[in-house]
Amino acid sequence: MVIVAGFTLRSTSLPEAPMPTLFRFLTVLAVIGGVVYGTIFALANFVGPQTRDMSVTIPPDRFQKR
Q1: Please, where are the H alpha helices in 1-66?
Q2: Among 1, 6, 41, 47, which lies 20 to 30 A Cα-Cα from 24?
Q3: Would you put residue 6 in left (φ > 0), alpha (ψ -120 to 50) or beta?
Q4: Mean pLDDT confidence for 25-42
Q5: pLDDT grade, residue 33 (50/70/90)?
Q6: Cα–Cα distance measured from residue 43 to residue 45, given in angstroms and rounded to the nearest whole number
């Protein structure tokens, strides 16, 4: 941290304006959408499907030509 003689750091905070309702709603939707998208992306890329054998018995009458 550099301190310069004669320089004072003042807090220049602006008065906070209330966030409009529509903007807040769209922001919440965007955040929720980002979380859902990130979850789906993570599941698609980091979780692999389990492969297993499957056998199905087909009745012989399904092989007969009609």
Answers
A1: 21-46
A2: 41
A3: left
A4: 96
A5: very high
A6: 6
